[in-house]
Here is the input.
Amino acid sequence: MNQKTIKEKTVCFTGHRSEKLPKGEALESLQTRLADEIEKAIQDGYNTFLVGGAYGWGLMAAEEVIKKKTVIDLQKPQRIRLIAVIPFEEQAVRYSLADHERYYEIMPKCDDVITLNIHYNNQCYAQRNQYMVDRSNRVICCWNGQAVSGTAQTVRMAEKQNLEIINLYE
Here is the structure.
């Protein structure tokens, strides 16, 4: 399978950290829309999902893909792959205890974990975002329109490559 074919079957996720996501019922609604959008991507033939491992949207997206991996449509079985693209090895060190536990519960369930740098550097998040965009054909995001953020940067990268962008932020 060539790189173009892989890209055509790959979705990446970008979105805000926990503090910028809605709370309560609004968060539950967002999670339901995310699960529906992942299901739609699978029905559209996408089988590889890239997550950056950031707390908030990234971990939520990873958990939803893991749920989809456990459900098999016997009429149309499909192998779904979850790949974590980690900007640097110590990414989760400063996460809250709950997010730290989520992160280390998710990582072993990924089909692959790609770590781009050993240590933090001021370009590592941009490198991760570019890596995911370069290997995807669709982006599922949760972006509030804020111009200066990693999510905004990733959306701009995706726009430059004319990727399909689905924003679930309300």
